[in-house]
Amino acid sequence: MNNVNKQKRQNKSTLRQRQAQATASMIVAAAKALFLEQGYTGTTIEAIAERAGVAVSTVYAVFGSKRGIMRAIRTAWHERSRIREVVYGDPGEASPEKRLEKLAQATYQQWETGSEVIAIYNGAAAADPEAAAELNDALKGRRKGMETFALSLEPHLRPGLDTARAAAILQALCLPEVFNELVRQSGWSAEDYQAWLSQALKCELLGRESRGG
User: Fold this and answer.
1) Domain containing 196: what range?
2) What is the DSSP code (8-state) at residue 92?
3) Is 114 exposed, middle or buried (0-12, 13-18, 19+ CB in 10 A)?
C-alpha cells in the first residue's frame, strides 16, 4: 500500500512539473510575440498574462519581471541551437578539428533561429535600462563562452597564438553580422556557411585548413 501511495505522489509531482513547464512555455511564447509586435517597452506584464491566458500573478511568480522573461527567451533559443552544449560540453575524444566543425554547425543554428530574439534584445536595449543590462549580461556570457572554448583548445592552438587572441578570433568569426552578410544578404546555404566557418576557424586557430576528425 505504501508503494502505491508513493507512486501516486510521484505521478502527481510529475504532472505538476509538466503543467508548470507548459505554463512557462505559454508565457514565453506570448511575451516573444508581443515584444515583436509592440516592442519591449510597449508590452506590459498584464498584456503578456492576457495573451498567455494566465493570471498576472502567475507571470510574476514564474519569471519575476520582463527581464526574467527575456532571459527565458534567450535560454530557450540557446537550447534549440545547442551552442552552450558545444561551447561548455566535455569534448571527450573529439579532435579539435571536429569540435570546430560542431561549433560552426551550432553557430549557424544559433543565428538562423535567433533573428527574432536579437531584434527583441536590440530594440529593448535601446529604450530600457533594464533590458540594456540584460543584453550586456548576454554579451558578457557570449564572451566568457568563447574564452572557455579557446582555453579548452590551448594545447592545439597554432604556434604564437595565445588563448586571449584565440577567443577574440572566435568572437569575430562567429558574429551574427558575419552570418547575416553571408547567409541573409549573399544567399549562402547552410552548408556553404558552415564549411567556410569551420575552415576559417581551423586555419586561424590551428594553423591548418583541415584534418580528419
Assistant:
1) 66-208
2) T
3) buried
List phi, psi (to 5°) of 40: -65, -50
Does 213 map to a domain?
no
Q: What is the DSSP letter of 162?
A: -
Residue 124 CB-density burial (10 A; 0-12 exposed, 13-18 middle, 19+ buried): buried
> Whose CA is closest to 70, among 133, 121, 139, 142?
121
- Domain final residue, candidates 23, 38, 64: 64
Q: Which residue has the cell 547575416?
A: 180
pTM attached to this predicted model: 0.78
Say how far apart CA 182 and CA 185 lie, in whole Å. 6
pLDDT confidence band for 213 (50 / 70 / 90): very low
Report d(CA 69, CA 34) in Å as an integer.
12
